[in-house]
Design goal:
91 residues, globular, alpha+beta, SH3 type barrels, 13% helix
Length: 91
């Protein structure tokens, strides 16, 4: 039952927040301090680590493609924005 829940949650709910588009327009949704899930193809969505965005790294054209995130263990990773799933959090 848990596996069924996570499968439906990842395919129906989680993918609504991961838009697959070209980097032609700036995406202002991801900000420093945002709460994200780090997508990992090797793991099921139930095991994706939760992290907070520490820093954004814009490219030469000014569009953010890479972000530094801190996990619950305190480890800081640099991950591409397409591998991060922004969680909706009430302000």
């Amino acid at each position: 039952m848990i596996e069924h829940f996570w499968r439906r949650w990842s395919t129906e709910y989680l993918q609504r927040f991961q838009t697959t588009s070209k980097w032609l327009q700036p995406n202002s949704n991801l900000r420093s301090g945002s709460l994200v899930l780090i997508a990992d193809e090797r793991l099921p969505p139930a095991r994706w680590p939760l992290a907070r965005v520490v820093d954004l790294h814009p490219g030469i054209d000014g569009l953010v493609r890479v972000a530094s995130v801190r996990t619950a263990t305190g480890t800081i990773f640099k991950r591409p924005v397409v591998k991060l799933c922004l969680l909706p959090v009430a302000e």
